[in-house]
Design a protein that fits this description.
about 425 residues; mainly alpha; 21 helices
């Protein structure tokens, strides 16, 4: 039976110290030595998690470990792990039977060099808007982006960043996105109204980034020409994209993708039945580090919440709110910091949503703009933190450090800048 554990202390800054330990050990150390592989991210999380258990007060060691395990085994995290496992199996089987190479050749054949980057970004935005999940978009498109990078000589982190950035376009705007649903429900506004306000803020950001990618495309010098397109081998990716856009559950989408790689791979003679099993096994093993990071991070962040870290942030930021602009800024800061502490934009919106509603009612804010602020800033932070599920997934599929992607994440950065301008300039006027 689960023990009923209650916090014994009010929110305090000390509760956030495990996050500072992680950032210092991983990010700061890596920046000092200019090598993001010197300190493995799994070790950084392990050390900060042990520290989080050690500083937790008021309960026994067994209860601390139980609370840590509770965070690591939350339904949201476990669902993410099932997706990681299936995504690893699909990515590896698709690679081994030739689906990725054929899809890359098809993309390079129909997109001229000057429109290659912009075309991928547009496709990324469209898929994420249709799917409503950044994770699903990243699973589908990252292997293709890596393949294009290998064929063209473009830096892999740069190509992966295009996919990660565009994935948050739909995560932020889609009617079926978890963050959109959470933001509109907590603020009591219609999704179509939130979409209208939100699109005024972020579409200019998307257009700016798209223009940059188009101009960047003119400087490309593709190092190799596309090979032959084996159309039958492209079908697994078409199946994954079509079923995802149709709203099919991402777990079922990946299962269908795995089955299609076996049927087409065996039929074309590019992979045998037992090789297919071996590919799935290799893909799942390749996700091992990502799964470990997800579990440890979930436990550590749960202890931060349990010890009052999020309560402390909420108390400090809402104490001196003054005026509508300050109220909107406090909501943006609250959801951003909560996202840093939970590494989940949906949970951050759900956590801060009721508080944002109280602030909104107190200062007479427009619920549609408040919902947009909640959703947008949660997506900005989620798109930039190296320990978020999306970044870890993309880095795992591309076999690179998640930190190496951050410098190229232009869309989340520009989206955050545009969202800040919307607060400071009281834009859109009608909703401010």
């Amino acid at each position: 039976m689960e023990p009923e554990l209650k916090k014994t202390e009010k929110g305090n800054l000390w509760a956030l110290s495990p996050l500072f330990v992680f950032l210092s050990l991983y990010l700061v150390t890596s920046l000092i030595v200019n090598d993001f592989y010197k300190v493995p991210i799994t070790v950084a999380f392990m050390v900060s998690s042990i520290y989080a258990v050690a500083i937790t007060r008021g309960i026994t060691l067994n209860e601390r470990i139980w609370q840590f395990s509770k965070g690591a085994s939350s339904p949201n995290l476990l669902l993410m792990i099932w997706i990681f496992i299936l995504a690893g199996a699909f990515a590896q089987t698709a690679r081994d039977m030739g689906a990725i190479e054929s899809t890359v050749n098809l993309t390079l054949r129909f997109l001229p060099e000057s429109l290659l980057l912009g075309g991928i970004f547009i496709a990324d935005c469209f898929v994420s808007l249709s799917v409503g999940t950044s994770v699903g978009t990243i699973v589908a498109l990252t292997p293709v982006a890596v393949g294009i990078a290998d064929k063209t000589g473009i830096a892999v982190p740069f190509m992966v960043a295009i996919v990660v950035g565009g994935a948050f376009f739909g995560d932020n705007l889609s009617f079926i996105s978890d963050t959109t649903i959470a933001a509109t429900r907590t603020q009591g506004c219609a999704m179509r109204d939130k979409f209208r306000v939100n699109s005024m803020i972020v579409i200019p950001a998307a257009l700016l980034v798209l223009v940059y990618y188009i101009f960047k495309g003119f400087t490309l010098d593709v190092s190799s020409r596309p090979g032959e397109v084996e159309w039958l081998k492209v079908l697994p990716y078409i199946l994954v994209l079509v079923t995802a856009i149709a709203g099919v559950n991402v777990v079922l989408v990946l299962v269908l993708g795995i089955l299609s790689t076996s049927i087409i791979g065996i039929a074309t003679g590019s992979i045998s039945f037992f090789d297919w099993f071996g590919s799935m096994g290799d893909g799942i093993i390749g996700m091992g580090e990502l799964i470990i990071i997800t579990l440890i991070a979930g436990g550590m962040l749960e202890l931060i919440r349990f010890n009052g870290g999020i309560d402390y942030i909420i108390d400090k930021l809402t104490r001196h709110v003054n005026g509508k602009r300050g109220a909107e800024l406090s909501i943006a800061l609250l959801v951003s910091i909560a996202n840093c502490c939970t590494a989940n934009n949906t949970i951050a919106v759900i956590t801060i949503g009721p508080i944002a509603k109280d602030i909104s009612d107190c200062f007479g804010l427009d619920s549609r703009k408040v919902a947009s602020i909640l959703d947008t800033f949660s997506c900005v932070v989620q798109g930039l933190i190296p320990y978020g599920a999306q970044m870890l997934m993309a880095a795992g599929l591309a076999a690179i450090s998640p930190v190496s992607i951050i410098r190229y994440l232009y869309y989340p950065m520009v989206m955050g800048f545009c969202a800040l301008l919307a607060i400071f300039l009281r834009y859109p006027r009608r909703y401010s």
